[in-house]
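2024-03-11 09:14:02 INFO queue: dequeued item LysR family transcriptional regulator, len=297
2024-03-11 09:14:02 INFO validating residues
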Amino acid sequence: MNEQSLDWNDYRLVLAVGRAGSLNGAAKSLRVSHPTVFRQINAIERKLGVRLFERARDGYSPTAAGEDVIAAAAELETRIEAVERRLAGRDERPSGTVRVTTTDTLLFGLLPPVFAAFRRAHPQIVLEVVADNAVYNLSRREADVALRPSGGPPDNLVGRKIANIAFAVYRPSRWRARDGDDLSAHDWVVPDDSLSHLNSTRWLARHGYDRRAAYRANSLLSLRDAAAQGLGFAVLPCYLGDRTPGLARVGEPVEELRNELWLLTHPDLRRVARVRAFMDGMREAMLELKPVLEGTA
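2024-03-11 09:14:37 INFO prediction written
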């Protein structure tokens, strides 16, 4: 096998198939078509004169040769990304694109006015925002900055805690309820299994409220809207529930559901002018929104 005959695009393709375990998954990550990946992986194998993957109904699994190429590709990727971050760190111009990842609830519930104010202050910086509850890999430059709830930042990222995020129980405002009422006597709208990692999902299960589920969804925005339409009680972040017509808070924020909001980037990017400008602007803006985030506004 002559690995020297491969270029970076070949390595990148093999690595994507190895990580995804399927052509569809690789095509999605590379943003190309399934037939393109199929043709290219076959061409790479012909070029090397060796089979890199075993084909099966449930996906592609690497051969011993494939594992060697995947390991070499992963090492190359790490080196290339490190060089790119270092080069980006020398960029002192407050212009260009900042790719931001955040959650759907923050984006649709709080951030548009903040982003608009930032753009007015920095018209040369273009914001590219990804609303996704999945955690993007800042080391691979999938995003430059993450603004998201977390129990604490990963060791490979830097940033700071912006505020605490308060959560509370909300009811449809048309329903009558008083503090101290038995909440288990009411219908609830609850997260589905895809959100089982959330503190609120576990809290609902501990108290048995999920047994009265009248509606399940994989989005807190959907749960908010369902509760506002009268489908049941919901647990929501206060910055979302307090601002939604048709909802009324039941009692004070639930202390054990409190979360932290972090603003994070990779160490190699923190000195990039556009990233630094965005981080500074977000810190100031979110400090002003602390009462909203902490449910005291």
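2024-03-11 09:14:37 INFO annotate: The chain has a mean pLDDT of 88.
2024-03-11 09:14:38 INFO item closed
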